[in-house]
Amino acid sequence: MGSRRARRAHGRVQPVHSPKKAGPTAAISKTQRKKARRSQLRNEIISAAKAARKAKRTQPPLLLAVVSVCGARDEEMRALCNTVHATETEKSVQPFETCILSREGKNERQVLLAALDLAKVADIMLLVFAGRADMDIQSIELLRALRAQGMPSIHVMAIGDGAEDPALRKLRGRQLAAESLGEDHALRPIQFWPQAKSEKATNNKSALRRIFAKPPRVVSWRSRYGYMKVESALVNNASSEAAASLSLCGYIRGRGMSANELVHVTGFGTYAVAKILDCATGTVLSQRDEHQGEPVESVGEVDEMMGEQTWPPEVIGDEEVDEDENDTEKLAKQYDQSLEAEERAEKQMEQEQFMMDETEEDKLSDMDEEKMIVDEEEVHRLRDAAKEDSQFPDEVDVPVNRPARVRFAKYRGLKSLRTGEWDPKEQLPIDYANLFQFRNLPATRKRVLDSAKEEGEKAKAGNCENFVPCGRKVYIQLQDVPQDVQASIIVTLQSNQTPVVASGMLRHENRRSVVHFGVQRVDDEEDGQAIKAKTPLEMHCGFVRFEGRPMFSENNPNSDKHKMERFLRHGRYTVVSFYGPAIYAPAPALLCHRNGSVIAAGSALGADVDRIILKRIVFTGYPFKTQKRRSVVRFMFFNADDIRWFKPVELWTKLGRSGHILEPVGTHGHMKCIFDNVVLHHDTICMTLYKRVYPKLLE
Questions:
Q1: Where are the stretches annotated Disordered (predicted)?
Q2: In whole angstroms, what is the distance from residue 586 CA to residue 449 CA?
């Protein structure tokens, strides 16, 4: 049973009383330990704040882009910027610069380009509205374009008469948020008083504190590049030569830059860098190594003796046909003559279009407001063609006076668009000889982006040689800049109307290839113009913009062949293919008219010269006589030779039948056909043919 003491404990464990410890911890109480812990946390906070202030000193000044969206004039914007700089800010606020998007004396295209270039480098964007006027259409389109490109941190600022009305501020905040961020967001406008007196200075100070309270938003696509807003330019060795060296001055932002990279000046071209100098001391921070530097050539050399290159068929001139030639030779001569005639017609159309564009640009340069001169008959014709193509997709009429086997000699039949075979290297056009092809684009992209990220991290830690980190004010010395480009850059900087942006390019991005972009139309469907394939358009992708005559196609993930789209339609995801620099995905893409209006927005998909785009045409005929599965079809062809030529191609009907041609009947294009089921008299007989198509260069 145990002892009496154990029975009284009822199973409880008795505490063990040990003697008190002697030492330094014996005198520390619980209150003293809490006080020591608070002191330790305070020291950690102070050290973190010191590190943050030290990091801010190494960062470039924040760039505030001031954009008028509703009623704010340029004079009010300049007064606003002067008041912002004159307002006393806290010591913890990072130094900042302001840049105004001026609209005076600019047309729609110039305003759009200036806004897009400014948003590429801005850290914070201030959307300013004044008065009680409503937002105009140009401001709404401008915000949509900025949203598609990628917006930095956004703040709405109210000045003038509308600043003191809370209901108007709330309405403008919701409108601007819907256009710039989305309908599910809302922005709270900040009141600001330009040319404020002492009683309003405190309110202005609190407004600036609210703007700089949060760190700037990171725009993911530009964080992998080094870029700068050019403040000034200097011609180093001015001479009578056609090209000279040009130095661009500014703060390096983003990842950092190296002299071994190419520098792209948005709107002015891509150039090699000789060296990068420090603005304060003139020390060389980065020097170009000719063995490791990226070459500036964007196109490849054409080797006409290379046997692996598949050239287009040669065009034979007009020659007399001997009577002794057989039918095959006559058909070959007719085929060659038709190819020559088609190429002459295409070149003539391109020259006429080019001359028309030049004439329009000359006229528009003399106007106060640039607006494209659009022919109403041409607009109605394109709209009718787009409507007809949507009702009867890909249907064409066989010419009566010309053999179909000659007119459609480049087309072929496919059993299935998904499983049919098509050699991507077969009969490539002459333009493909200048392009570059990636053996494994995903692996190359991953290696280049990982290397760029690693260089940026090493540069921040100071462990990367021949690389300039972010935050340094430098001179970037460009090589072989033409004199007309130098003059244009200097005039643009002196006018202070449009920002000049310089950005580094990653490895292989300057190579010309066939680049593809997935886009959707963003303009108004009712007022939007029908856009046909091969229309001269302008593409804005990241820091780069270029022109071309693109090809539209579907995105077929289950096949290596994609059907061409004749028109860029609303509400449909379309792939746009250009000849251009091989920009790595992801990157924002804006498809614009040459007059500046935005058509579609999306993102880059990458470069792929082997992407097969097939143009589909459909011949249609109608049953003349039917007997169960057999039928006599007319109006598809108009001679017996064409029927024999296209006999191997499979037929199909709009009611779901499939069949093939048996033989021609007579000499007027009637033919006997057999199908897999009973053919109805009101059915339509169809034949599908395909031809590979390519984008066009803008001459």
A1: 1-40
A2: 11
DSSP class of residue 104 equals T
* Cis bond upstream, residue 695 (ω within 30): no
Q: What is the location of CATH 2.40.10.190 in the chain?
A: 614-692
Q: How far apart are CA 395 and CA 263, in angstroms?
A: 48
DSSP 506-572: -TTTTSEEEEEEEEEE-S-TTTPPPEETT--EEEEETTEEEEEB-EEE---TT-SEEEEESEE-TTS
Distance in angstroms (rounded) separating the CA atoms of residues 165 and 79: 21
Burial class (CB in 10 A: 0-12, 13-18, 19+), 34: exposed
Domain 222-299+440-505, CATH among 3.40.50.1980, 2.40.30.10, 3.10.50.40, 2.170.120.12: 2.40.30.10
Distance, in Å, from the CA atom of 589 to the CA atom of 604, rounded to the nearest integer, reads 6
The alpha carbon of 166 is separated from its chain's Cα centroid by a whole number of angstroms, namely: 38
Q: State the alpha helices, DSSP H only, in 566-626.
A: none
Nearest CA to 288 out of 268, 262, 253, 254 is that of 262
Going through 71-214 in order, the beta strands assigned E by DSSP cover 96-100, 124-130, 153-159, 190-191
pLDDT digits (tens, 9 = 90+) for 382-407: 667 776 666 678 888 888 888 899 99
**pLDDT score for 30:** 82
Residues of the chain with CATH 3.40.50.300: 57-217
The answer to whether the beta carbons of residues 255 and 222 sit under 8 Å apart is: no
Task: Give the residue from 124, 102, 50 showing the smallest Cα distance to 499.
Answer: 102
Question: CATH classification of 57-217, choosing from 3.30.413.10, 3.90.180.10, 2.40.30.20, 3.40.50.300?
Answer: 3.40.50.300
Which residue in the block uniquely carries the two structure tokens 């954009």?
Answer: 67
422-472 residue pLDDT tens: 998 888 888 888 888 888 889 999 999 999 888 888 887 777 788 888 888
Which pTM value belongs to this model? Answer: 0.77
Answer for the pair 231, 242: CB distance below 8 angstroms, yes or no: no
Please give the structure tokens belonging to residue 313: 């068929």
25: three-class secondary structure by DSSP: helix
Residue 529: partners with Cβ closer than 8 Å, 6 or more residues away: 374, 379, 382
Beta strand 62-70 with 96-100: parallel, antiparallel or unpaired? parallel
Every domain range in the chain assigned CATH 2.40.30.10: 222-299+440-505
Q: Specify the 3-state DSSP secondary structure of 587.
A: coil
Residue type, 14: Q
Taking alpha carbons only, the member of 642, 591, 596 closest to residue 621 is 642
Does domain 614-692 correspond to CATH entry 2.40.10.190? yes
Handedness of CA 526, 530, 536, 537 (dihedral sign): positive
Nearest to 516 by CA among 572, 567, 456, 580: 580
Give 667-694 as a DSSP string.
TTTEEEEEESSPPPTT--EEEEEEEE--
CA angle 219, 573, 615 (to 5 degrees): 130
pLDDT average, residue stretch 243-252: 88
Distance from C-alpha of 611 to C-alpha of 605, rounded to nearest angstrom = 12
According to DSSP, the β-strands at 262-265 and 561-565 are unpaired
The DSSP symbol for 91 reads T
Q: How many CB atoms lie within 10 A of CB 333?
A: 16
Contact 642, 629 (CB under 8 A): no
